[in-house]
Amino acid sequence: MATSAPLRPLHAAATAGWRWAVAGALLGTLLTLALFAPARWLASALVHWTDGHLRLVNARGTVWNGTAGLVFASGVGGAEAISLPGQFHWRLRPRWDGVSAALDLPCCAPAPLQLLAHPRSNGVQLVLADGRSRWPAAMLTGFGAPFNTLKTEGVLDLITQSFAVEVQGRQLALQGRATLDASDISSSLSTLRPMGSYRLALQGGSTPSLLLTTREGSLQLNGSGYWTGTAMRFNGEASAAPGSEDALSNLLNIIGRRNGARSLITLG
Question: Is 33 helix (H, G, I), strand (E, B) or coil?
Fold first, then answer.
């Protein structure tokens, strides 16, 4: 009887040690999963977040450091899809105020695109560092109507300045400025190649505005619009320069509502 009492503290210590070992093992497993989560998990999440419109194909590496092909898709089941040439490489790093990302796109940007994601109470803010990038106009097909009908070709030069997007539920707020120069644009709906070059300027703020102008070309495009928080309202018109009416007639009939020589474009 005298020797049984000391066994209780020993048993309690052993139980506590076992619990700490299990807790340590679980913590180690969770940490390993967080650090070495496969890139395909990020690919699956991106498909879910974008309703299948943005995809990482053949993703390799981890959630934090990986490579994949980048595909823009639209239509039912992603019927209309366009792949960017080459491989896309990303590097994600946690910060005290969110996550930083470096997006390396050798096809389209001379330097990695720098992005910061700041979580909010009911959404997220995405801040894009100032930069320049060049994209094939064919990628617009993956954004759906009307681009999947136009099937554009040419070059898109994007410049961003203090640009940020904040998503709060179904509301989307825009800050800063983004300028898109579309050069030597052509379409499968016209035999005229190229049709022209254009500029699309987006100015953020309390009521973000959009301005479309023609830099040069036979197809004249002009218009303006604004972002309501959930949708874009845009009014513009298209017309053919003298001597190009026949080559652009089919296109003008499709991209808007014909009003004589003009085609009126209304979105939203």
Answer: helix
pLDDT by position in tens, the chain (length 268): 455 555 556 555 555 554 544 444 444 433 444 555 888 988 898 888 888 888 999 999 998 999 999 998 876 555 677 888 889 999 999 888 889 999 999 999 999 999 999 988 788 899 999 999 999 998 888 777 778 888 899 999 999 999 999 988 778 899 999 999 999 999 998 989 999 999 999 999 999 999 999 999 999 999 999 999 888 899 999 999 999 999 999 999 988 999 989 999 998 8
Q: 3-class SS at 218?
A: coil
Instruction: State the Cα–Cα distance between residues 109 and 136, nearest whole angstrom.
Output: 12
Instruction: In whole angstroms, give the CA distance from residue 60 to residue 210.
Output: 38
Rg for the chain, CA atoms, rounded: 26
For residue 130, give the DSSP letter: S
SS (H, E, C) 146-206: CHHHHCEEEEEEEEEEEEEEEEECCEEEEEEEEEEEEEEEEECCCCCCCCEEEEEEEECCC
Provide the CA 51 distance to its chain's centre, in angstroms: 12
